[in-house]
Batch of 2 targets.
Target 1
Amino acid sequence: MIVNNEFKQLIIALKQHNKWMNASELGDLLNKNPRQIRYLVSQINNGNPIIESSSKGYKIIDGYDIDFSDYMQIPESANDRKQYIIEKIIIHHDSLDIDELREYFCISDSTFKNEIQQLRKSFEPLNIHIKTKNNKLFAIAKDRDRQLFALNVVKDELKNNSFSLDNVQRFFNKVHLDAIKQIVFGILNKYEYYIDEYSLTTYIIHLALCIENHKTGDGETTDFYKEIISNSSDVIIKIVTEVFEELSKYYSDSKFTKEDIFEASMLMTTRIIDRSTKSDNYSLEALVGKETTDLILEIIKRVNRIYSINLFDERFIYRFAVHIKNALIRARSNMIINDNQILNLKEEYPFMYHVAKYISYIINENTGIIMNTNEISYITLHVGVLIEEATLKREKLNCLVVANDYYVIGKNLCNKLSYSLSDLLTIDTLVTNIDEINKYSKHIDIILSTFKINIDTTPVIYVGPFPDANDIEKLRSSIANQLDIKKKKNLSINLKRFIRDDLFYPETDFDTTADAITNLCDDLYSKGLVLDTFKNELFEHESIAISSYNNVAIAHSLNNTDISSFVAIAINKKPITWGVNNVRLILIISLKNEDRKEFKEIFRFFTSVISNGKIFEKLHDIKSTDDLIDIIYENS
C-alpha cells in the first residue's frame, strides 16, 4: 500500500478516536463526502486490511499497531526509485507501465531516461538486462542470475551485520547473550545433549527477548503451555526447568515466568525431538497441526518463487513452524509483544525484513491475522539466521564427530576443529556411542572419529584426540578432497536428471540460428515434450536478449509454462553465427517450475567450465550423453 496524506489523515483520525466512526462523521472531520471516505477505506484495505467495517462504521482493527514506515512511501530520491524498480522487475518479475511509473515518481522524461540508462549499465555485468518495449519496463534474466542477485543483497546486509550473537547483542539493553549461552550450554552438556549453532543462536535470542520484556498474559496457564508439557519428555522438562531456574538467579530483577521460558524453549525442544524421535514417528503436522503445516508449506513455496530464497531446510521448518503456531496463538489471544529493541532490524536488514513482511502478508491472506511490527521482526530473525547458516554451509561438509569421551576429549576436539577447519566443515553433532550415528546419518557428509569404526554409508576419517598442526593440515587435505567429491556427485546427479540420450544430437548441420531453433523445437514438439508455443517463445527471447555465451548457445523461454524438464544438446558440424558469437554447441533448455532452482549448477557449468578451450574441444568428439557427463565430472 502507498501511504499518501489522505490515507494518513484517515488512519490517524480512526486511531485517535479509537471508536466506531461512520462515513459521515469521518467526512465532516476530513472535509470529504461519504463516498470519498468509502473509497479511501477500500484503497487502504487493498491487500492487507487494517480498517474494520460494519453497520456501526469504521475503526482500526483491534491490536493493530500502526507504523507508517511499514508501508510503501512514494520514492523521492534516485536511490529510492532504483530500489523500487529493482524490487518490481527483478525480484518480483513484474513489468511496469513507463508512463504510469514516471507519473508516479513525479519526475521529467529526461530524468527518467537517465536513471533507467544508469540502472541498465549497472546490471549488465550481472547478466540482468533492463529492457523497454511497448511502453513497458522489464528485466530479462535467467532464474539463476535473479537468485544470485537476491542472495548477494542478503550477503551485503550480513557482511557487516551478521546474525551472530555478538552482533545481535546490540538489540538488548539488560540481557547478556553470552551469559545465556553459557547457562544453556552447561545444562545441555549435563544431560548429554548437543545442539547445533543454528538452533542454539535462535534459542538464545528467544530466551533473551523473553527475559528482557517479560510481558505475559493474564497469569493463567495457557492451552499452548499445557500442550508443550504434554508433548515433552521427562528429560526435556528437566532441562527447561533448570534453564528457567538458572536464568531466574542470573536475572532476578526480571519478571518472566516458567511458562514464558517453556514457550521460548519450544525451538530447542523441537531440535531434540528431531534428533531422537522425529525420523521414526514424529511429523510436522503432529507437532503443530494441519493449519500451521499447510501455512508453512505455502510460505516456503511462495518465498522461493518470489525471492528465489529456499527455506526448505528440515531443521528450519520445524522451528519456524513452532514459532508461527505460537504467533497465531498470541494474535488470537490479543497478546501484543512489545520488543522495541528489535525494531531496528528493518533498518539494518531491509531486504530480509521485506521478505518477513511478505511472509506476514501470506499469513494474513490465509488466516486473516495481521502480524504487527514486532512479530515481523521475530520472523526476520528466523529467516536471517537460516540464510546466514545456509550461506556458510553452501560450500562446506556437514560433519559428525565421534569421541571416546564427551566432556574432555569431545568438546575440546570440536572446538579445535571448528576453529581450524571452519572454512571446510560445519560440526553438526558430537556423539560418544557408535549406535547413535544412524540417527544423524541423513544430514551428515563426513564422520571424524577418534577411534576406528566401519560405516558403509558415510566417509570416515580418523583423527587423534589431540591433533597438532601437522594433523590438522592432513585433515584439511582429506576433507577438501571429500568436499570436491560431494560437489561433483551433486553435479552428476543433476546432469543425469536432465540430460537424455534421445535429446542428444551429435552431428547436426544447421546453417543459421533460426534453422537450429526451428528444427530442434519441431523434434521436441513431436516427442510431446513442449507446447506448440515453445518455439515462438525461444524466438521472442532471442529478439530481446541473445542467448549465446562465448562459444555456446543456451536457449530457453522467458515464460513459466514449460511442461517438462530437459536439456537438448546439439553439436553442429560447423560454427554458426549466433548473435555476436560463433557456436557449435547448442543447448535447448526446458524447466518446470519445481526444477528451476536445482538447475543452477548446470548453468554454471555450461557458462563457465566449457569456456576452457581444451575441455570444449573434447565436447566436440563426444558420442553419447555418458561421454558428456564423464567429461563434466572430470573437469568440474
Target 2
Amino acid sequence: MPKPLQRLNMGALQSLAADIRDFLIHSLSDTGGHLAGNLGVVELTLALHAVFSTPKDQIVWDVGHQSYVHKILTGRKDRFDTLRKLDGLSGFPKVYESPHDAFGTGHSSTAISAALGLAAARDTLNGKHKVIAVVGDGSMTGGQSYEGLNNAGRAHTDLLVVLNDNQMSIGENVGAISRHLNRIRTTSAYLGAKQGAHRLLDNLPVVGAPIAKTIESAKDALKYLLIQGVLFEELGFRYFGPVDGHDITTLVKVMKRIKNIPGPVLLHVLTTKGKGYPCAENAPANFHGVEAFRVDTGKPVNGARKPSYTDVFAKRLCKCAEGNDRIVAITAAMPDGTGLSAFAERFPNRFYDVGIAEAHAVTFAAGLAMGGLRPVVAVYSSFLQRAYDQILHDVALQNLPVVFAIDRAGIVGEDGETHQGLYDLAYLSHIPNMTVLAPANAGELEAMLDFAIAHDGPVAIRYPRGEAVFSAEGPPIVYGRSHTIAQGRGIALVSVGTMMETALAVRENLRAEGYEPSLYDARFVKPIDGALAEKLKEYERVYVLQDAATKGGYGEALRLPNVRDFAFPDRFIEAGTQKELFARYRLDEKSITAFIIEEIKNKEI
C-alpha cells in the first residue's frame, strides 16, 4: 500500500473514512453497484492497509463485492465512473486489473482456501509476506469455509482470517453458525472474562504433573464456559475479538499486535452493513446491490420496474402450492433475489433457507423428494454450478422429482464473468434423467412450472434476469415437444428460451427482404424434439438463437451439419449491460439479420 496511508494518524484516518463513505454513496448513486457491504468495511479496509503492505502482503476478499474501498486505496478511484460498465472497472477483485488484487473472487466461501494456498506457496518459496483472508459471516454458512479452516488449523501455517460479522449475507443470515456468532456479538464483557480467567490460571503455582494436568483441564473447562470463540480455537486458530469494526483506532492496534503471531489467527470484527447512510442501514438487503438511485431518498432513478421473470415464477409457485401441500421451496440465502420471500410469507412451514450452501440445498432437496415431497430449488444459474455433483449423484441418479428454478440464466450483465449464467445448458443437458426447459415468455414459464412439478423426475427451468415478456397463450407443454411458431421454406430459425423476441424480429426483417423463414420455439433443450430435429434436416440452413455458451448448447446437441449457432463464444464474458453484450457478440437482432442475409446471398439459397 502507498506509504502515505501508513503514516496517517488516527484523526486523519477517521477523516479519510468519512470522505470514502461520501464518495461511495455519491459514486454508486450514478453507476449502481454493491453499496451496503462496502459502507460497512470502510474502517476495516483502512486498518488493513494501514498495517499491511499490498501487493507484497496479500489480501483475499471473499466474494469480493465488498472490495470497493480496497480498490479506492490502491489507485483505482479515478475509474469508479466506469464501475461494472463495459470495459470498465470490475465490481470484484480481478488479478489482471491490479497487482493489489491477490486472487480473483466472485462467489462465496472461497477466500480461506485460496488464502491458505497462497500462504503455503509463500512458505514453500521461503517468502516472508503476510496473507489475509477477509470473510463475511454470510460466507461462513458455506461449507467450503470450514474445509479451509479445518485444513489451515492442521497446517499451522501463518494465516490471518478476518471475520467481518455484520449478520447479513444478501438477506439476514440463518442457521446455527449465525446464532453462534450472534451469541458472541451479544455477550457483554465476555472478552474481559476470557482474559481474566486465563491470567488467573496462568498465575497459579504448578506443583508436579498431576496439578499441571488439573490446571489444563480447568483451562479447557473455562474455555468452553467463557470463550464463545471456542469453535475456531478447536479448529486450530488463535481467536481474537469481537472488535468494533468501525473503531479504526482499536482495529489498527489489534492488527498490529496479532500481525506477527505465528500460525493461523482469526480476528472477529463486528460491522454494520450500510454504515453511515441511513437508507442502507435501515434496509441493508435493499442496498446490497443497487441500480442508480437518488441519494436523498434512496429510491431508484428509474422508478418502479415492470414484472420480471422472477416475479412470474414466484407468483405461479405460490398458486401451485395453494392446491398442493407437498410443494416446498428452498433457497440458498437469497429469498428476495429468487422471489421466494412471498412463498416464505404465505407458507412458512414449507420454506427453507439453507444459507450460502448450494450443494447442501440440492442434497437436502433430494432427501425431501425421497420423503414424498415436491421440492423446488430456486437459485441463480452461476450459483447452481456449485452443486453439480449433488445434482448428478443425489438427484438425477435416483431420478428424484426435484425442480430447479434457474434464475439469472444467460447474460446477467454488470456483475461480469463470475455471474454470467451461460453454462447451465452444458452442465445439465448431459446428465441422465434430467429434463431441461427454456420458456420463451411469461406464459410458458408458468406452464413449464406446472409441468415440472407434476413430472416424475428432475426438471430444470432456466429463465433470465429482467423484464418478462407477456404474449398470447401457446399450446400445452408436452414432454419433449417443441412449438411451431411459423412455417416457411428454405431456412429455419430455432429459438431457445427468451431469445424468441429477437427471433421474431429477425424473421420479420428477413420477410421484408423477400425470404420466408420457419420459426420454432425449442421449449425442451433436453430431450430435444426428435420430430423437429428430423424436420430441420430438410432446410438448407438452420439458425439457432440461444442466450448461452455455444459449447454444450442446443445447437451442438442437434448435431446437424446445416446448423449455424448464434450463442456466446468459448470464453468468459465481461461486464456490461445485457444490450451491450448482445451487440458486442453480434447476437442482437441487427447483427443476426445482417449475417443471415449475407450468408443467404453467398450461398444463393
